[in-house]
Amino acid sequence: MPVDIPKDKWPGEVRTVTLGAAAANGGTRGSVVAVGGEKALPFMHFETDTPHRPALAMEIMDRLPEDWSPLLLEFWGDTAKDPAVWAKAAEDAGADLIQLQLSQTGADGNPTTPDAAVAAVKSVLAATGLPLIIFGPGQADVDNELLVPVAEATKGERVVLGLCEDKNYRTIVAAALANDHLVTARTAMDVNLAKQLNILISDMGLPLERVLMDPTTGALGYGIEYGFSVMERLRLAALQGDAMTQLPMIVTVGYETWKTKESKVGQDVPGEWGNWLERAINWETMTAMTLVESGADIVVLRHPESMKRVRAAIDELMTVPE
Amino acid sequence: MADHLVRFDTAPAPVSVPTGTLLSDAAHRAGVDIQQPCGGQGRCGRCAVRITDGTVRRRSTLRLSNEDVEAGYALACQSVIEADVSITVPPQEKIERRLTTDRTAAEVQVPDSYDPAQVQTVRRVRLTVPPPSMDDQTDDWSRLQIALRKQVRLTEVGISVMQLRRLGHILRKGEWDITVILDSQAWDCPDCPVRLIEFKPGLMEDRDPLWGVAIDIGTTTVSLWLVDLISGEVRAQVAEYNGQIARGEDVISRIIYSSKGSGAEELRDLVLSTINGLLQSACKQVKIDPHDVFKATIAGNSTMIHLLLGIPAQTIRLSPFITAVNHIPTLTGRDVGLDTHPDATVDCLPGVASYVGADITAGVLSSGLDDTEKVTIFIDVGTNGEIVLGNKEWLVTVAASAGPAFEGGGVADGMRATRGAIEEIWVNGDTYDPSYRVVGSVKPRGICGSGLIALLAELFLAGVIDKGGNFNTNLDTPRVRIGEHGPEYVIAWASESGHGRDIRLSHVDVDNLLRTKAAIYAGFTILADSVGIPFEAVEQVLVGGSFGKYINVEKAIQLGLLPDLPWENFYFLGNTAIRGAYQALLDRHARERIKDIANRMTYIELSADNTFYEAFTSALFLPHTDLARFPTVQAALGAPIPQ
Description:
The complex is a heterodimer of chains A (322) and B (643). By secondary structure, chain A is an alpha/beta fold. Chain A has helices spanning 70-76, 83-92, 114-127, 140-153, 170-179, 191-203, 224-239, 253-257, 261-264, 276-293, 304-318; strands at residues 16-19, 33-36, 55-61, 97-101, 132-135, 160-164, 182-186, 211-214, 250-251, 298-301. By secondary structure, chain B is an alpha/beta fold. In chain B, the strands form 7 sheets. In chain B, strands 14-13-12-15-17-16 form a 6-stranded mixed β-sheet, sandwiched between helices. In chain B, strands 28-27-18-19-20-29 form a 6-stranded mixed β-sheet, sandwiched between helices.
């Protein structure tokens, strides 16, 4: 007897957001990446097509990140001393996107100047054909000071500028509006807050096709259930037709997992914890896959081995059964 | 393009203008002065004029009711000329009066057919006591009791030792004529206990006032009305911030303070000194001695009543959140520490639960909610933000801790709605300059609740703050600047203010106000959800609170403080708690009704699950994260402004 699998039909769908612009569209990117467009919960292939697979971004910095886990520094070695070299290595490691994190201070300890930030961004754009996501150091006034000239210097490239937060979004959104870029909107693990920031950004006139949302997440063992639940509810709201939640979601998995004790510490931990590197990779991979299942459209990672494993897992998830 | 003749009744000659001209521009050309405090955005309604002949095309009628439009009213800044018209420009004060029709500020009226002989528990009797002699050596007190039995048929009269000490002297001073003040809960029952409060030598006139007070102890504001129990008239109204504020702004911090060291005694002393100070100043107004006040009826939230009586309040704060007592027995001025007559009756009205106290039961009584067929929402916009939904059949209630912002607390330049408070304000959408009305028409010293509600809505609509309450610091105006606590808006410059300092609304103030309005709206949604009633089914909304005489419904809706229902469904009642206390002070049947209300109300505990938090964060936005709940605000934001 044939079994009828019940299928959900949702009234809403996630917007498609395209990162990067090729020469034909005013940019210089060798590849562009489209994300979003979902009409069902993740990987429900029997209900509807999944138009775009989750994209993987590699996180790099404009200077050697001395506070990163020694495992990461050891892996990247001298590559991490030059953002252009690092970006190329990330592309070679299979990344779909590059996320460039600007630092608060340069290697000499002085505050990063707008000129230095622009130079770093330009060198990365020259070194790789991948679309770029650029985050400021994370302090409102510094972010604004650096991101505006960066946005101007990269006009037309459709880079993603971040982070927009509820108390600091105007300047970044205005820079994106003026220079044909995208923004990412970060809120603290709450459906309403996410929606509110999207409304504020949309009120400034930036089309929602140029906005990603970052609902914030926690690493495995550090509140991931809560993050998962918020993302799931955001996606359900989007599918139910709530326009202000119909945005692709980006999660910064590498940043979250590599600061956990399990990933960061190799000595004086219980023997049962096993091999340090394997544990750290597992942590990043498991966190990423959990969030991919909750609807993440862009996953930012730090270790190429994790990226390889996550990519393989997504390949399987994207395989439509006969 | 055709030209049209526009005639203004206040202009000597008509003007000719092309099709599509704004009525306000035509007025300007004709030399007619029409005020536009909002900058011509159709928001303040002060440019309303009447079309007496011909028609105009109205782009927005936000400030006008359907009846207004039918009567020919149009907003000059929102009406376009497409034909010859004649216009009547109403005098400015007429417009202001018309605009106040949506905010009912009720005066205190003595209840119809108030008859103290029927409903007042405290009364005065005049007795002539037979003097003693060698033949009749009955003691003074028995002598008085016999007179009471024979002359007014009272058998069970109690007396305090303090009065016994005075008895002999007073009887002799009045030469055996004496006026006695008594309290009985049931005058129609001669055997019921009667308490003697006071006696005075001689026979007082029946019409002489007999004094009582109604008191509302709010977390932020304490109000007191001095009432003549014979005529029922309120003879003085006074209010002051609760002296406990310095020890915590909300009930929770007060309870915590009270549980440490001598905190409870200190808080009790503070509120007593506030009340006694008010009593003093009310009595001064009518030139009487506070000792001549023989009855006090007190409303207040459960925590305030506990702290007043020195009853430990800790259990209110801790799960499972119960009070020590909801129905308090009748006390005396001496018991409580009031500077009234020491034997005055002190009646603390009953509450329902830890966070729904006597202020709400009294408020329900005075609002008439327990006696209406209509499905009604009653909101007390105070520090605790209690909300009641129901009608004569059923009553449910929640308390949504709102904070003191709408009473002027927790806002740097906030103040109570007294002389010098900005009570209404418009912000020009082009220049960002405000125009405001001040209580007492003096220079402003601060801004009260109604002013804050209007200001927040105006700043939002003018684009000075965004939906998240963030200031737009890129505007071309010196009024938006970075102050010591971040961005702020200058309402009045030092040179314009009554105290020589700038009056501002800071980013911190905005956040406080947002939280307050979000808590209240969230409470409202939770309550409606709990009984499965859609907002549209609510037939009237009664709003109480001491935020000022006027509150602008439109502004309160634009803010997302009140639900988006037709304006005519809102009624503003002012301080309902003290009105209820006043009714109970006068009438023992009203007092019985409050007890009945307290027993009937179903209390919904918000801390039981996380639905409140969800409702709160979604309301923490202007007007709300879900804009579909506020269709008229959506229209106001999207409404095209005629060019």
